[in-house]
Structures are given as C-alpha cells and as structure tokens.
Write a structure and sequence with these properties.
heterotrimer, A alpha+beta, B alpha/beta, C alpha/beta, B: five-stranded mixed sheet, about 30% helix, C: Elongation Factor Tu (Ef-tu), domain 3, Rossmann fold, 9 helices
C-alpha cells in the first residue's frame, strides 16, 4: 500500500492540527513548572507540538497509565464484592500530537511484552485507537542516541503521520500507516499540495541527514549486546552505579520501562486496587516476605536494569529495551547515563578478554 | 569559588596516609559545564575531583548508601550540606570517627542555567558547621546574616486560602509518584518508609492526587525542623515541582515560633520537634 | 490487562493449623460451577488476595485429583501473611487469581523412581505432586519422601504424613534439626540424612526438592555429589511475584520470567540462569 505525502507551510500545518483537534480527542505536550507532559487538550494554544525533547515526558502514560484502577471492592464480614472499574478513558479514538520518534518507537518495543502469552487487551485497544503524529527532530539533544539503536529512525513505521520541517522552509507530511493515511484523508483539507513520495524524498532526506549528523553519542548496539551478555559478574557494575541515589526516576520517565506494582487503597470496608509504576532500582522490588532478597545491593539492581535493557529483553523479545531518548539521563539528579553505563561496562569486558 | 586543587590534594593525602576508603566529591559530567557526584576509591582517580560554584548536589546523601556504609569516608560539604551531616550525626546515622570532612566556606552555587540558586541567596549558614578542615574564608563574617523569609512563601501566603489550595492541588496533580525527592534527600534514610507500606492504606504507590498529597505532606512534615534547604529533592524531581515551598513554609513557621531554630546548625541539637522548652508557644493548645 | 488482575472470590471451607506459624486454608469458589472448571496441575500457584490487606503468591498444595476444593498452605512471614493468620477464618472470603506458572514435568517422571526432598513449608508444593502421584500410584516405581523441619512441632501435614507412613507403597523418612525427647527417628539436616540414611538409587530416579533457599542449595550439592544428573533434579523456585502474567517484571531472572517459565525448573535450567536467587 502506498501512502500520501503532502507539502504545505507553517499555516497549513496549523490548520491541519486544528482540524485534527476538532475531529478527535487530542493529547499533546502541555507545559507545567517548565516541564511538558502529555495531556488532553482542546486548543492548539494550550500545547506545544514541538516541545523540546529534554523537557518532555514520554507518551507511555497514555498507553500504560501511571496508575490504573484494577477494581473496586467491598469487604465486610457479611461477604465480599468485587466490581470492575469504569470505562477506560484512554481507549477512545484519539490522536497524539507532538510525540517524538523515540516515543513512537517505544510502543513497538512494549507491544512485544504486552502481546506475549497473556494479552493485555486494554493496552491493545489503546494502541489500536490512537493515531500518532510525530514531528521529526531537527537536532539531537545532548543525551539522545536513537540513531545508534536497532531501529530505522528515518523510516520509522511506529508513527502514523510524519511531519518534517524541511530546510527549504516547507512542511512535509507523510502518512506512514493506514491509520495515518485515513486521518490525513479526513482532515487535511487545506490548500496543501499532494506530491509523490519521490518528489518529497530529497528534501526530507536532507533534513534527516542534518539531524543524523547532530548526534554527540554513538554506539554499536550489537557490540554492547554481545559484550554485556558475557559479563554478568564484572565488578564494573559497582563502579558505574556508585553515585546512583536509587531515586527510581529513570524508570518512571523511561518510555520502555514497564514494571509495575499492585497496591490497595482501603477506607473502612471499601477499597480500590491500583496498578502503578514500579522500578527495579527500588530496594524492595524483589524483597520477599521473610526477608530474602535476591538483589539486596544497589549494583545488583543496576546490573538488572542495564542487562534487562540490553541483554535479557533482546534475548526474549528481540528488541533492545531502550530507544535512546536520553530521558533517564536528563531526569537523573546526578546525570547517570544509560549510554555511559553500558558503554563503560562493555568496554571493561573488552579489556578483560 | 574554586577549590579543585585543594580538594584533589586533600584526597590524595588522605589516600596516601590510608585514612579513607572512599572519597565523595564532584567531577565534571563529561558533556557540558555541569558536575555530578563521584565516589572515588582508586587514589589514581583523585585528579577527576573538582569544586566550583557548579558543585550543587548535597553529597551527604551518599552516606546512606551501600558504597559508603561501614567504610571510612572523605566528604566535601558546603554550608547546607554540613547541616544535614550534623543531623545525620545527631540522629546516629553515621559515625564521626569514620568521616573526614572537608568544609567549604560557600559563596553560593548556581543552577544549570548559571544563575545563583534561590536557596543560596536566602542562605543563613554559608560556612560548613562540621569539618576537619575548612577551605576558603568565612562568608558569614561577623554573623550579620538575617533570616529572609522565602519570597515564594510570602507571595503564596498573600493569596486567599482557596487559591493556595488550588495551587497545591496542581502541584500534587503533576506528581508522578516516583519518590525521587525522598530518595535524593540526605535525611530520608529510613529502611522502610511509611509511605511505602505494602498493606492497603492511603499511603500506597498509586499515582492519584490523594496519594500524592498524603505522601508529599507526610514527607514534608517528617522533615519539618530538619530540612536544610539543599534542594536535592527539587533537582531530582522529573516534573520540576516546587517542593521547596512545603519545606520553606515549615521552616519559617518553626523559625518564628521556636526560638529562631534552624535545622542542624548546632551539633547535638535534636531539632524543634524533639525538645521541649518553656519558651515554646502554647497558644495552639485549647 | 486490568481485568486479568481482578480476582475471583473464594470461600474458606476449613482452616487447619499445621504448625504454630503455618496454616492450611481449604478453599472453594463462591460461584457455583467454577470449582469444576478450575483445573490446575501440581506445581502451579495462585495469587491470593486478602482484600484490604494485599495480594500474595502461594503455591497450590493440593492436587486436582482430589475434587471439590484446593488448598493453600501459608506461613506467617510478612505483613499480609500475618494479617491472613490473624483475621482469616472459616466462612471468610478471599480473592484468587490463577492458576499460574508451569508444573512439574509429569510426563518425564512417569515410570521412574521418585524421591521427594522437602524442608519446612517447602513440602507444600511437593504435597500437590505427592497427592497426584499417590492417586496415580501405578505409574511410578519406588516412592520415597524425605521431609525435614526444625522441630517436630514445625512439621506440617502431620495427619497426612501418618497416612503416608501407613501406606505400604511409600517410604517416608522424617528428620528434625535438633534432638527432642519424644523423637525416635532421624536427627540432622536434610542433606545429611539424604546421604546417610536415604542413600537413594541414582538409576532411573527423579528427585523433586523444595524448601528454604539454603536447604535447596545444600540438597542440590548433595544430590550432585551422590551422582544425580542435573536434569533429574527438579526444584521449584521462590521469587517475588505480583502479576503472575509475565508482565510486571518482578520475577525476572535473566530472560526468564519465573512466573511464566517457572516456578518449576530442573537444575540443568537453573545453571543456565544468572546467579540471582
């Protein structure tokens, strides 16, 4: 199936966004306290579709909410009643504006874990009903390394509509999936010019090349995968985790971290059960009743984090559990970079052999 | 303010004399002008150490981690950091004989944008109050510093109660419940925090406004009379929440009502909530 | 996934105080007909909610060959289990999700000699398989059960152990850690009794073991020393779990999810995992 490409200008893009907002529920980055989080918006003026990547939280909460109600219950001596919760507000037909490429990619990575064995139907429904419009970044941030990982950033099909700000001052819109094609067809009514893929290609390629050249960080993920897999017991993990304060922020802002905990909130006889984020850097993540803890010290937890991202998930599901967005490093109070950690540890492996 | 050379020399000397196992200081983060904490165990690495007005993070936080526990530690402390160290000592969390403390007469540190941090402009205790060795000349001079009520607190206090409530609702709504504020606080050292209970309570891990409210309020009250305004919590918050408002409000109430008490300034001072004085106000008793 | 996390309500039919800190809860589903649909195999586990307190993971300690109920044996260890012990009585209701996880390799052990080595509450998952094998006794050859506990009072399933002892086709060996006046048989830790008293036949034998982590460790060492092949040593792992669905990441060891790929592993499989349990 071939998809449409349009050329327009800034005003045309704005019109498109407004038309989208009028037709579907829209989520976009909204600023609060200097940080952008994806929230439901009604007007374009409330949000910033090109919010800086370093200041924007991921779109993960729109698919895997920070807290989801599992059930409500009443437990008295007379008996117990469990009732399901209200309809999922995230499962409606909706559009996400201003998602970054790395955000979009993270959903492809998460699909793997949510769709093996027990299928997470809620997640699936949210995925199916969402159209993602993503503007390609013009410049890499200090901590970005998406181009170093196992996905094709230029031809990413995790997003539905691609927006590129060409160097020629024009704005290019390209449908990447059937969902995106449908949205463009429905809402793109301005005086934009339909062009063929080939016509738009040179300018889009130029933009991508400039973007790809702006990366400070580069690594060979295959080498990292292979080396990390061999050095489970290296003391280097103790060094790299030294200044970690175990604050868990990295996992909470990470677009691919998906560990969660189940907790209850109960007042008198009625309670609610929640499913909320958790982190493997948390000291009692694996603590068992009775006191046994397989990962009682910080470096072991860090090892789990790094290995899960670059070895275990790859072994199991064939993807790196990292999209190179750098959000963990930006949010970390002491700027620990997953990039630095895995590079340093795999370099140590190289020295050892 | 640049004590890079002095600190490197001190660390090298301590390692050479076998007085410490680990030195906690700052290093350049490797990609821009900012610094990150570093724990040095290899004497060869002391050349990584730096200290300038970019040395922001309160290092006392590391005294509660696996990497320093039961070890002899050299540590750099600014005025505010030293106050939290004082409290750690008073609360028996670290042993003084295991520490070698390099105190700084701090002229104030700057944030990522290069502007002087707000807590530094309001600072009452710029010079380290615990040390084995001091660097620089006393900033507090002849003790002429006066208590400045935080400008944000004053502004907030002027608003009607409903507006204040609405404001904090907004703050709690944006909390993502990662608890980074708590983990990065040097004085939150409990092995199991009361807001992490596994049984069903209001203090669960859920990301609801009520749970965030309970967690942050409980947290700030546990730190009332103990918070030293180092802003580690704010630095750690991924949502950039103005957490200092909670702490500074407590601080000003305690300062005004409990004989100008400031946390951790006097060694062995257990804090306003832990001691009784006849001068304590009692007008709240019905 | 949220609906997969919603439990079904079960009624407590019977509470058996096994030891001072272990209780067995006999459960049936409140909704009619569900109990007959609830099919499980020895080694699987359930997520057990004391609503208002929390959710815990317990193995099913009975066998589906015994119809009309299932058992969970619970040792008082943490916050929720303490709540269960103090507040959960006959007639009360609990939430159950499951069954989850894999099961003992029933095909592999057919026609083999069986040696069960259990310690303390570790007999619970073994009991499920023991019951299953007793109910299909003709499928197996020699049948030995070695069970150890700290003291005679700490032995669970005392009545059932008596039945096993009376069953001529089973060989039951009991041991306690320290001598007691009324105790007439073996004294000593499980690995020692295994080597000195049981002296198992290695040929054509499958060993199934469970107990506290430290006991499992030394028992496996003894078994290997006695000459058992890694693939013939089967154990069931204890790991913190929460969802049981292979999603929440808690039980992750290497690329393995203990709640999906386990909790039953052979020693051969364990050796290929990172040393983290």
């Amino acid at each position: 199936m071939s998809f449409t490409t349009f050329v327009t200008d800034k005003a045309g893009l704005q019109k498109f966004y407004e038309a989208v907002m009028a037709s579907r529920e829209t989520y976009a980055p909204v600023e609060k306290f200097g940080k952008f989080d994806f929230k439901r918006v009604a007007r374009l003026s409330e949000c910033d579709p090109v919010s800086p990547i370093a200041k924007t939280l991921s779109i993960k909460p729109l698919f895997f909410p920070r807290t989801a109600k599992v059930m409500k219950y009443v437990a008295t001596s007379a008996g117990t009643d469990v009732s399901e919760v209200d309809e999922d507000p995230l499962a409606v037909k909706r559009v996400i504006l201003g998602a970054k490429h790395c955000d979009a990619r993270s959903l492809q990575v998460l699909d793997k874990v949510y769709n093996w064995d027990y299928i997470d139907t809620d997640y699936q429904k949210r995925r199916e009903n969402t159209v993602i419009i993503s503007t390609r970044c013009d410049k890499a941030d200090t901590h970005c390394f998406c181009t170093s990982l196992d996905y094709d950033v230029e031809n990413l099909d995790a997003l539905d509509v691609l927006v590129v700000n060409g160097a020629d001052g024009k704005t290019y819109l390209e449908a990447r999936t059937a969902k995106g094609e449908a949205l463009l067809g429905e809402t793109f009514t301005s005086d934009a010019v339909r062009v063929t893929k080939e016509e738009a290609a040179p300018e889009m390629k130029k933009q991508y090349d400039a973007f790809a050249a702006s990366f400070r960080l580069k690594m060979d993920y295959k080498e990292v995968n292979a080396k990390l897999a061999k050095i489970f017991d290296t003391p280097e993990f103790e060094n790299v985790s030294g200044n970690c304060v175990s604050c868990n922020t990295c996992a909470f802002v990470c677009p691919t971290c998906h560990c969660f905990k189940i907790s209850d909130e109960k007042v008198k006889d009625t309670g609610v059960r929640y499913k909320s984020y958790d982190s493997c850097n948390n000291g009692y993540f694996t603590l068992m009743a009775g006191g046994h803890n397989p990962r009682p010290v910080k470096y072991r937890r860090w090892r789990q984090r790094a290995m899960h991202k670059f070895v275990y998930y790859k072994e199991r599901f064939g993807e790196n559990l990292c999209v190179g967005c750098g959000k963990c490093t930006i949010s970390c109070p002491v700027n620990i970079s997953i990039f630095e950690v895995v590079s340093q540890v795999s370099a140590a492996a190289g020295n050892r052999q | 303010m640049n004590y890079t050379k002095q600190i490197q020399d001190i660390a090298a000397k301590l390692f050479a004399e076998g007085k410490i196992d680990v030195f906690v200081g700052y290093r350049m983060n490797g990609f821009d002008e900012n610094q990150v904490p570093v724990l040095i165990t290899d004497p060869q690495d002391v050349s990584k150490l730096v200290f300038t007005d970019k040395s922001v993070f309160n290092l006392v936080n590391y005294l509660k981690t696996d990497h320093t526990r039961r070890k002899r530690v050299g540590i750099v402390v600014k005025g505010c950091d030293s106050r939290s160290l004082n409290l750690m000592l008073t609360e028996s969390q670290v042993k003084r004989e295991n520490l070698y403390v390099v105190g700084i007469c701090c002229e104030g540190v700057v944030d990522d944008a290069g502007e002087k941090m707000q807590n530094c402009t309001d600072c009452m205790v710029p010079d380290a109050v615990v040390s084995d060795e001091m660097l620089g000349t006393a900033v507090s001079g002849s003790g002429t510093l006066t208590y400045k009520k935080n400008a944000d607190i004053v502004a907030l206090a002027e608003k009607p109660l409903t507006e204040r409530a609405a404001y904090f609702e907004e703050v709690f709504e944006n909390c993502i419940r990662c608890n980074a504020c708590r983990h990065s606080c040097p004085l939150c050292y409990c092995a199991k925090c009361c807001i992490d209970q596994e049984t069903a309570t209001l203090y669960n891990g859920a990301n609801t406004t009520s749970a965030a409210f309970h967690a942050l309020m409980t947290w700030s009250l546990h730190l009332a009379g103990r918070c030293v305004d180092c802003r580690n919590c704010e630095k750690a918050c991924p949502s950039h929440l103005p957490l200092h408002l909670l702490h500074k409000q407590n601080e000003s109430v305690i300062y005004e009502n409990f004989q100008e008490h400031l946390a951790g300034v006097i060694p062995e001072d257990r804090g306003a909530f832990y001691k009784y004085s006849l001068k304590d106000p009692d007008d709240f008793i019905m | 996934m949220e609906q997969l996390l919603v439990p079904m309500i079960c009624k407590v039919d019977k509470v058996i105080q096994e030891t001072p800190d272990i209780r067995t809860y006999r459960l049936t589903f409140r909704e009619e007909g569900l109990m007959d649909q609830f099919s499980y195999l020895p080694g699987q586990f359930v997520e057990f909610s004391l609503l208002g307190s929390g959710e815990c993971t317990f193995c099913i300690s009975s066998s589906a060959t015994r119809k009309g109920y299932f058992d969970c044996s619970i040792k008082k260890a943490g916050v929720v289990t303490a709540d269960i012990h103090t507040s959960l009585e006959e007639g009360d209701e609990v939430g159950i999700r499951g069954p989850f996880g894999n099961w003992f390799p029933l095909e592999d052990i057919k026609g083999k000699n069986l040696l069960f080595v259990g310690g303390g509450i570790g007999l619970a998952p073994l009991r499920s398989l023991i019951q299953y094998c007793i109910d299909n006794r003709s499928d197996y050859k020699d049948f030995t059960i070695l069970y150890g506990a700290r003291t005679s009072a700490d032995m669970c399933y005392k009545d059932e152990i008596k039945e096993w002892q009376d069953n001529k086709s089973l060989n039951v060996v009991l041991t306690i850690d320290k001598p007691e006046e009324t105790w007439t048989t073996n004294v000593g830790v499980v690995p020692k009794i295994l080597e000195e008293v049981v002296k198992p036949v290695i040929e054509n034998t499958k060993v199934i073991t469970c107990g506290p982590p430290i006991m499992i460790k030394y028992t496996i060492q003894s078994l290997v020393k006695l000459g058992f092949a890694d693939k013939d040593i089967i154990t069931t792992l204890e790991m913190k779990m929460q969802c049981g669905l292979g999603k929440c990441g808690r039980c992750n060891i290497g690329s393995t999810y203990v709640c999906k790929d386990g909790p039953v592993f052979t020693n051969e499989q364990l050796k290929s995992l990172p040393d983290e349990f």
